[in-house]
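Collaborator request, handled under Task 6.
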Amino acid sequence: MHHNASPEIFRRAKELRMRLTPAESVLWERLRANRLNGLLFRRQHPVSKYILDFYCHQYQIGIELDGEIHDQSDQKVRDIARQEDLNALGIYIIRFKNHFVIQEVEEVLRLILMEIEKIKTSISSNRKY
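Structure tokens returned to the collaborator:
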């Protein structure tokens, strides 16, 4: 579940849990305590050398919330590399802009559920009987 995350990554994740961004707080209020269709999400979850904003282990889905810094070209390159690394670990990533989460949290939740349905369909179609 953590893909050999280092003790340092765990320490940093713990620190980040204590100071969520406004967008993370909005989404966490809707995800915590299995509030989204009974799904368990973790916040600031360590995976390998990364910390995912939110993670659902059941469907190996990570949710990343992006502020304005993610619009910069060098950050976009890092985000692509990060996503490729996480995809290689079998983790599917969904990204949302912070302002979209704050303004349209219901739509964000709907989109998360749509992506999970796609994953569920993919899983069931790949089963061998």
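The cover message to the collaborator said: "The CA atoms of residues 44 and 53 lie 5 Å apart. Helices lie at 7-17, 22-31, 73-88, 98-103, 105-126. Please let us know whether this matches your experimental observations."
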